[in-house]
Amino acid sequence: MQGKKYIGLVTIALSALMACNSSQQSTETKDTTALTVADTTVVNALSFSDEKLQVIYTAYIKLKDELVGTKYETAKPAASDLSAALKGFEGCENAAKIAAKIAEAKDIKTQRASFTDLNVELIPVFKHAALTSGTIYVQHCPMANNGDGGDWLSSEKKIQNPYYGDEMMECGRVAEEIKAK
Q: How many folded domains does the chain comprise?
């Protein structure tokens, strides 16, 4: 059963990615697809009782990873995918608008600033989600947002900072662990 669910989620993620990136060059799509499969594998170590949350979390991680890589252009479709997933989830309408704002941003700095607002909306959702397996790590960078700090979600303990990317990749700490109940 778990294997079928994994294959289904990978198929959905790959289909969405290919549809969003169809205008890009073939080699670029292949590279992004390989990254998505690897990311989905890590995300699939988690499972939620609500499948919509699984889709939202997978889309969120894709966006976070694009920001970690300072990939402004590929963060845009990742944010659009997240916005679409959030629109179908009651109570996440504001988060959907913030994700759409990230998709429309004119630069990485604006995307990262809006990512802070997105996390303010989404972290509480995942803190109260019915996680059936795995652990979500709430991570914190004290230097983000001009010293006000910024949080994000991760599927692994290793810090990869979406607010600074390779400028300060490991700046941050695990602030909390959300575990399956």
A: 1
The alpha carbons of the chain give a radius of gyration, in whole angstroms, of 15
Closest CA relative to residue 94, chosen from 114, 112, 111, 77: 114
Q: 150 lies in a domain? A: no
pTM: 0.76
Within-domain flag for 175: no
Sorted by sequence, the CB contacts under 8 Å of residue 89 that are 6+ apart come out as: 52, 53, 56
- End-to-end Cα spacing for the chain: 20
- Are 11 and 40 in contact by the 8 Å Cβ rule? The answer is no
Residues in the chain, pLDDT under 70: 1-44
For the stretch 84-103, pLDDT in tens is 999 989 999 999 999 999 99
